């Protein structure tokens, strides 16, 4: 199908797959607020011509107009009503501390719902972040499993030729990471965006069929990334501190994060921009 038209203002459904840890939520709000900041700052950065992430610095600017409705798919197992689905332009799935391969009711319902939207409501674009990336993979023919390795903090990954095209010619992308599960293989119908030595699938894309220009981001139907474009260094600091203190993250991983903490982060200006570009907004 051809790339669908977008409402004015754009309307997005955010599926909340977790709640931030208390130290993060006290200072930065829930994931609805964190993703609202990402989307707002990506629009602001695109209009200003920014080429590197400045998430915190952009927070003081007046927000461009869009609608972001949040749905708690964990505790309330709530989703957009079937009769209202077509009033949205896109669905975003957040990250989560849960494992996408777990056989529990809320995850199974989420997998089924994503499959339904991808197959039966193709005019909605789908964006998956970390756990969301893994859910999309599981829903549409792939698998999710433990990788055996932590990836934490700003991490470069090499882009494929398709990834370079999607992200404006870059050879590599730096994204904040916080995971030890992954989608090892790209499901049929998707193309790989990039990889790291310990995570062969750092993101994937599915395009709408049609005769549009190969470089036109509006051809993107589904886009996922294993990293966290919504995380700032300050958010990751708090997560690493808490998880290292509890023993979830090994000491050497926390130490390596401290070494790389100040590395660049393309979350806003690359992934955030592509979300809006796929909707024809920038």
TrEMBL record:
GO terms for cellular component: cytosol; nucleus. Gene3D superfamilies: 3.40.50.880. The lineage of its organism: Eukaryota, Fungi, Dikarya, Basidiomycota, Agaricomycotina. Residues 74-234 form the Glutamine amidotransferase domain. PROSITE patterns: GATASE_TYPE_1 (PS51273). Pfam families: GATase (PF00117). InterPro entries: ChyE-like (IPR044992), Class_I_gatase-like (IPR029062), GATASE (IPR017926). It comes from Schizophyllum commune (strain H4-8 / FGSC 9210) (Split gill fungus). This is Glutamine amidotransferase domain-containing protein.
């Amino acid at each position: 199908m051809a790339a669908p038209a977008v409402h004015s203002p754009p309307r997005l459904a955010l599926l909340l797959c977790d709640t931030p840890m208390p130290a993060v939520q006290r200072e930065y709000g829930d994931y609805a607020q964190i993703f609202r900041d990402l989307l707002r700052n990506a629009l602001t950065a695109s209009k200003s011509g920014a080429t590197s992430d400045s998430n915190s610095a952009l927070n003081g600017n007046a927000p461009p107009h869009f609608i972001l409705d949040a749905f708690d798919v964990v505790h309330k197992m709530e989703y957009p009503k079937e009769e209202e689905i077509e009033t949205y332009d896109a669905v975003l799935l957040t990250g989560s501390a849960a494992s996408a391969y777990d056989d529990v009711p809320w995850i199974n319902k989420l997998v089924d719902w994503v499959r339904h939207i991808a197959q039966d409501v193709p005019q909605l674009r789908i964006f998956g972040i970390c756990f969301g990336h893994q859910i999309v993979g599981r829903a549409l023919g792939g698998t999710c499993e433990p990788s055996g390795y932590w990836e934490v903090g700003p991490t470069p990954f090499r882009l494929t030729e398709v990834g370079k095209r999607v992200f404006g010619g870059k050879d590599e992308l730096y994204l904040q990471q916080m995971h030890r599960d992954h989608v090892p293989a790209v499901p049929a119908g998707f193309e790989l965006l990039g990889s790291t030595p310990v995570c062969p699938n750092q993101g994937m894309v599915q395009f709408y069929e049609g005769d549009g220009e190969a470089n036109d981001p509006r051809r993107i139907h589904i886009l996922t990334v294993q990293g966290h474009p919504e995380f700032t260094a300050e958010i990751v600091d708090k997560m690493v501190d808490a998880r290292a203190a509890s023993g979830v993250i090994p000491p050497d991983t926390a130490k390596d994060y401290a070494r790389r903490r100040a590395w660049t982060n393309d979350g806003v200006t690359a992934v955030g921009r592509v979300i809006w570009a796929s909707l024809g907004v920038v």
